[in-house]
Amino acid sequence: xxxxxxxxxxxxxxxxLKALADPHRRQILRLVQNRELAAGQIAARFPLTQQAISQxxxxxxxxxxxxxxxxxxxxxxxxxxxxxxxxxxxxxxFWPDALARLKDAxxxxxxxxxxx
Amino acid sequence: xxxxxxxxAVTATTRIAAPPDVVFxxxxxxxxxxxxxxxxxDLDPQPGGVFAVDVGTSPARGTYVAVEPPTRVVFxxxxxxxxxxxxxxxxxxxxLTADGDQTVVSLTHHDLPGEHRPGHKKGWxxxxxALPAAVVHLK
Lengths: 116, 139
Fold this sequence. Notes:
The complex is a heterodimer.
Chain A: H1 13-20, H2 23-31, E1 37-38, H3 39-43, H4 50-62, E2 66-71, E3 74-79, H5 85-110
Antiparallel strand pairs in A: 1-3, 2-3
Chain B: E1 10-16, H1 20-23, H2 30-33, E2 40-43, E3 50-55, E4 58-68, E5 72-77, E6 90-99, E7 102-110, H3 122-138
Antiparallel strand pairs in B: 1-7, 2-3, 3-4, 4-5, 5-6, 6-7
C-alpha cells in the first residue's frame, strides 16, 4: 500500500516554483537564507500585515522551503536549502535537452544529405 | 546551523559532427540560436552586448561576457523586470573543443543556489529570477 506522502514530496518542482513565484516570498527566503528568524522579525521588514506574512510563510512551509523550530513561544524559520534541489535538477535537465537540440540543428544543416 | 555544502554548477556536454567554426554561430546568430533554443532572439555577440532569447512567454535576458570564436562564449542569463534579476546574473559558459572534424560542446551554468557561499548572494537572487525561463522551456 502506498503510504501517505511525506513532507519531502511537497518540494516537487511545481510546489517550489509556485512558492517562488511571489517576490515577497523570495524576499522572505533571502532573509532566512543563513539564519533563523521569528515570524514577527520577518514581518517587521515588510510593509505587509502580520497575517499576510503568516500566509506567505505557510505557503513556503508547504512547499518544503522553510524549516520551523519552536523556541519557547516563538517559532523560528530558516531556509531549507535542499528544497531547491528539484529546481536545480530542472536546469540540469534543461541544458542537456537544449544541447541535444543544438546537435540536431547543426548536423541537419551541416550534413543535409544524411537527413532522412 | 550546519553549513551549506557547496554543490557543483550544472554542466552538460554533447558531441556534434561539425567543426567548431560551424557550431559557434549557433550561440551568436539570432537565426541559428532559435533553431535549438527559444522562439525569437536578439543577439549582439560582443562583450557587454545583448543576449536576449524569448523562451515561450519568458524572456531570457543577459549580456555576452566573452565571445571568442570558435572556442568559447560566455553569457549571463536571467529575467528582466524581476526584482531578483538586475544586471548581474547566473552565468553560462560554453567551451567548444575540436576533436577531428567534430566538436565537443561543454556547457556550465554557474552561480546557482547550490553554489551559495557567504557573501555571494547575487547568484542566489538571480537564480530565482532566471529560473522561470528555463522551466517554461522544459514544457
